[in-house]
């Protein structure tokens, strides 16, 4: 029995349950992102926080010291959008007649009571809507994607519930810890909006319908707010506004994430968001290289998917792709560089791509500076979600989310040595474990 | 000194480009449509027709297009089209007036360029006919290469699509679809009677909604505290119809349903702006004329469904002769490229004059869409939306050579032909680069794992 207890204790630093040890990374190159890089410096981590960073900082006596010779310390990367940590939803229940959008909502939304069993007949039925669902209540540390992402240098992610048009409210999470109580940094990262459709027999059945629905929901939320305020002032003699959880969820959301991929779609959604009058960030943006001036002019914030479009692997080799698709595939990776040049505030998100680091390198090959790339993966996402006071750079007092790399993070095969989340060290498996590619001629 | 001089030169050059906005099309056979044809020239300045006549003074610095006797006519206006949009039908509900084409315009749809190449300069993009009251429509100018909002015909009166007959009464089937075996997903209505009921009910609701706002406005005017009514995007456009602020374009086929809709409109005090398709319009032409509705029909397309069995190719001519403002439309990305030939058929079937036939695709649709002060004929002061054909446009051998919108050449056949080879080459190079990229990736990553392949 006693032996078992010792064994568990021995493991605790890795599992992250006991207070993390004091760590000092010495003589390493330190890329702080918020300030100039240091050629040789020391970072001290205590109680999960960065307590010291500088060129002439001594390692404390109680610290576990990492010799940083040949190593570079970066802030932990932030995956700016996705559903990391949310266990993938079970298939929609039998009543999932809303079709393509993935059912009413996999994350727990229920059909409106008066509509149980019937397809939505209009905006009043609040189809494909679960604005009140919070990712913070759904995330799990043992979700399969958490460890994989952490092994590639990510220490935080912004996760949103999936399924539907208004899918719910996002959370900024750290990629370690068992459940939401340890993981969540912010439980109100914004409302995720898609352009999902209900199918031919359930409203909305078209893109037009979805946009009209979103417009009606924002109008209703505005009306709901005014009616409630008026009623709260003097309820006597006034009709009581009916409680609407869908609108409560809208009013709770500080910002809205809306999709746009093609240049003309970006133009469309910029105009749409302006009309809605709500703070909006756009995601997808593979043809952002065409719309960078538009995004800049409108002061938009952009979340660029790193899953660059590719031709289907098993397509008929004789098929000739359309010019539009060929152009998009060739130029999509130049979007981050174009946005940086135009002065658009942008962050990158992994979007479940097979090789995040390769896809970042493709953007760098297309003209994105490594500084801009790093910023779009650290401080910028932290800023746009309002958590830059805690993560996104190596600064005294911030959460000790760090990634320690042998050589350069954006090298062909980045050798990530350690990943620290909340000051706890997680070491990715050595790259040798990966199978060597076979070169066939 | 030299710096000042060069900026002066730059200013001169800028003035030069301004002056280059003057275009003269000379030695053309001009078909103004609203006036008799003549051989002469047209002067275009800042996108408008400034002068026309047998002899004009060519302003200094003007760009001259030598027509060599080719035919110049007003740009074609297609009163019924479904191109340039990412969605057409919101068929989930029988009243979908909350949706609108303008939200989903796709300015990169190649059909715009193809239509342009067929002489079309304006196109009325309608919601589909899946339901009794469809969505809001958008009139566009074919400004290929411009953004969605730049394509919208500025200042055109808003409109909405209605539909009668077979399409809106399709209720779905209980035996298929996600709610198999249940009546729950069947859409009302299932009959023509039901279509009428849906329209009447929608306008009843619109009147109640209108009254709610009137009541609220009266209250607040008196200084009373009141919660404003909820804005209803479905009913707002219908109130606009009631208040004559929005046109109705109604898809219809049979004489009985045409009369039904005219009665409903009379009951609620609004007008049907155009009946679309209206293939049995010739049977009730007098009633249509009495209501003041226009008719936008096909030349000789019929029998593709039961309600189109009684159509005849004389429809456009009969309607015209009975005093109905009539146009011929395409309803198709294909037919829109040769509406001039469609109009020509009205000369053969029904004996319209050549000018009357041309009016079916120019000034008449312009009037139906209430943009006749801007487009639809070649007249001084109107927008320079013009097509230059090599033959008379009613000849089936006529091919559009140049198409202008707002005085800008958006289609030039010679230029298009010249650039084809270059475009092919660009595409080939792009394909080669994509192949190279893929090859490099495979080399780095190894072949895709067997599991990654989808089963055939």
Oligomer: heterodimer
User: How many strands in all of chain B?
Assistant: 16
CATH class of the largest domain in chain A: Alpha Beta
The domain count of chain B comes to 3
Query: What is the beta-strand fraction of chain A?
Result: 15-25%
Overall pLDDT score of chain A: 88
Which CATH first-tier class of the largest domain in chain B would you pick?
A: Alpha Beta
- Based on the coordinates given, report the CATH architecture of the largest domain in chain B: Alpha-Beta Barrel
State the shape of chain A.
globular
CATH fold assignment of the largest domain in chain A: TIM Barrel
Strand content of chain B: 15-25%
Any idea of the CATH topology of the largest domain in chain B? Answer: TIM Barrel
Q: Helix count of chain B, per DSSP?
A: 12
Q: Poorly predicted ranges of chain B (pLDDT <50, ≥5 residues)?
A: 1-20, 448-456
Task: Please state the CA-atom Rg of chain B, rounded to the nearest Å.
Answer: 26 Å
Q: Largest inter-chain interface?
A: A-B, 63 and 56 residues
Which SSEs are present, and which pair or pack?
The complex is a heterodimer of chains A (441) and B (456).
Chain A lengths: L1 H14 L7 E8 L7 E9 L2 E6 L9 E4 L3 E5 L1 E6 L61 H8 L2 E6 L6 E4 L1 E4 L5 H4 E3 L4 E3 L13 H27 L11 H8 L3 E5 L2 H14 L3 E5 L3 H10 L3 E5 L17 H9 L3 H8 L2 E5 L6 H10 L4 H7 L2 H6 L17 E5 L8 E7 L2 E3 L15
Parallel strand pairs in A: 1-4, 1-5, 6-7, 11-12, 12-13, 13-14, 14-15
Antiparallel strand pairs in A: 1-2, 2-3, 5-16, 7-9, 8-11, 9-10, 16-17, 17-18
Chain B lengths: L1 H18 L3 E8 L7 E8 L2 E6 L9 E4 L4 E4 L1 E6 L28 H8 L2 E6 L7 E9 L6 H4 L7 E5 L28 H30 L14 H7 L4 E6 L2 H14 L5 E4 L7 H7 L2 E4 L17 H7 L4 E3 L10 H10 L5 H6 L3 H6 L17 E4 L10 E6 L2 E5 H33 L11
Parallel strand pairs in B: 1-4, 1-5, 6-7, 9-10, 10-11, 11-12, 12-13
Antiparallel strand pairs in B: 1-2, 2-3, 5-14, 7-8, 8-9, 14-15, 15-16
């Amino acid at each position: 029995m006693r032996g078992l207890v010792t064994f568990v204790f021995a493991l605790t630093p890795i599992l992250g349950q006991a207070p993390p040890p004091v760590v000092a990374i010495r003589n390493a190159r330190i890329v702080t992102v918020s300030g100039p890089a240091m050629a040789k410096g020391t970072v001290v981590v205590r109680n999960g926080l960065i307590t010291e960073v500088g060129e002439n900082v001594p390692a404390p006596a109680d610290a576990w010291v990492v010799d940083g010779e040949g190593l570079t310390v970066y802030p932990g990367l932030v995956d700016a959008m996705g559903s990391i940590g949310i266990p993938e939803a079970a298939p929609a229940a039998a009543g999932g007649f809303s079709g393509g959008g993935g059912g009413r909502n996999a994350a727990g939304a229920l059909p409106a009571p008066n509509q149980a069993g019937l397809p939505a007949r209009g905006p009043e039925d609040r189809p494909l809507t679960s604005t009140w669902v919070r990712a913070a209540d759904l995330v799990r540390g043992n979700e399969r994607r958490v460890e994989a992402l952490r092994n590639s240098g990510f220490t935080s992610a912004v996760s949103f519930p999936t399924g539907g048009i208004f899918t719910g409210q996002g959370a900024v999470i750290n990629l370690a810890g068992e459940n939401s109580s340890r993981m969540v940094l912010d439980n109100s990262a914004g409302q995720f909006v898609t352009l999902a459709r209900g199918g031919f027999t359930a409203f909305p059945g078209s893109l037009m319908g979805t946009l009209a629905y979103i417009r009606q929901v924002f109008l209703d939320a505005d009306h709901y707010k005014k009616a409630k305020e008026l009623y709260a002032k003097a309820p006597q003699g006034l009709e009581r506004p009916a409680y609407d959880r869908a609108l409560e969820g809208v009013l709770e959301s500080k910002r809205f994430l809306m999709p746009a991929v093609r240049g003309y779609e970006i133009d469309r959604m910029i105009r749409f968001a302006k009309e809605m009058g709500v703070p909006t960030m756009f995601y997808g943006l593979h043809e952002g290289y065409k719309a960078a001036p538009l995004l800049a002019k409108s002061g938009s914030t952009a979340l660029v998917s790193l899953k660059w479009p590719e031709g289907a692997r098993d397509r008929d080799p004789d098929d000739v792709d359309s010019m539009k698709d060929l152009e998009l595939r060739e130029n999509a990776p130049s979007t981050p560089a174009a946005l940086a040049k135009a002065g658009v505030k942008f962050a990158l998100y992994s979007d479940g791509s097979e090789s995040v680091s390769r896809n970042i390198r493709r953007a760098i090959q297309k003209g994105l500076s490594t500084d801009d790339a790093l910023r779009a993966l650290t401080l910028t996402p932290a800023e746009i979600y309002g958590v830059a006071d805690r993560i996104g750079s190596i600064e005294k007092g911030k959460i000790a989310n760090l990634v320690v790399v042998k050589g350069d993070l954006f090298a062909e095969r980045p050798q990530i040595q350690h990943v620290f989340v909340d000051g706890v060290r997680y070491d990715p498996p050595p790259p040798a474990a990966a199978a060597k590619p076979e070169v066939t001629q | 000194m030299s710096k000042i001089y060069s900026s002066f030169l730059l200013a001169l050059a800028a003035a030069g480009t301004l002056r280059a906005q003057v275009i003269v099309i000379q030695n053309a056979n001009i078909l103004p449509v609203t006036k008799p044809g003549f051989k002469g020239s047209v002067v275009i300045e800042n996108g408008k027709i400034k002068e026309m006549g047998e002899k004009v003074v060519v302003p200094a610095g003007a760009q001259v297009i030598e027509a060599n006797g080719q035919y110049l006519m007003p740009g074609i206006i297609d009163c019924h089209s479904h191109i340039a949009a990412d969605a057409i039908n919101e068929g989930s509900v029988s009243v979908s007036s909350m949706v609108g084409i303008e939200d989903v315009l796709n300015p990169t749809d190649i059909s715009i360029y193809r239509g342009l190449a067929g002489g079309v300069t304006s196109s009325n993009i309608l919601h589909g006919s899946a339901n009794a009251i469809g969505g809001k429509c958008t009139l566009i100018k074919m400004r290929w290469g411009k953004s969605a909002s730049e394509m919208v015909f500025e200042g055109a009166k808003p409109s909405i699509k209605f539909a009668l007959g077979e399409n809106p009464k399709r209720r779905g089937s209980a035996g298929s679809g996600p709610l198999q075996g249940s009546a729950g997903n069947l859409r009302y209505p299932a009959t023509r009677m039901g279509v009428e009921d849906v329209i009447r009910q929608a306008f009843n609701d619109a009147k109640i909604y209108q009254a709610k706002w009137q009541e609220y406005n009266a209250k607040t005017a008196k200084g009373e505290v009141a919660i404003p009514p909820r804005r209803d995007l479905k009913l707002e456009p219908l109130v606009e119809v009631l208040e004559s602020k929005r046109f109705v374009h109604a898809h219809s086929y049979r004489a009985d349903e045409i009369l039904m809709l005219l009665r409903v409109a009379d009951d609620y005090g609004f007008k049907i702006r155009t009946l679309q398709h209206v293939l049995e319009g010739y049977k009730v032409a007098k009633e249509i004329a009495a209501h003041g509705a226009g008719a936008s029909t096909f030349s000789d397309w019929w029998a593709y469904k039961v309600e189109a069995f009684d159509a005849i190719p004389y429809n456009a001519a009969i309607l015209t002769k009975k005093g109905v403002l009539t146009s011929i439309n395409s309803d198709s990305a294909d037919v829109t490229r040769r509406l001039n030939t469609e109009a020509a058929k009205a000369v053969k079937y029904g004996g319209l004059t050549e000018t009357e036939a041309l009016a079916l695709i120019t000034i008449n649709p312009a009037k139906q869409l209430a943009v006749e002060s801007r487009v639809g004929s070649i007249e001084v002061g109107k927008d320079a939306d013009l097509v230059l054909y090599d033959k008379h446009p009613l000849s089936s051998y006529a091919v559009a050579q140049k198409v202008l919108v707002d005085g800008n050449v958006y289609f030039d056949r010679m230029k298009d032909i010249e650039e084809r080879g270059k475009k092919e080459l660009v595409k080939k190079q792009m394909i080669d680069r994509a192949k190279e990229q893929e090859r490099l990736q495979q080399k780095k990553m190894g072949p895709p794992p067997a599991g990654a392949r989808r089963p055939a």
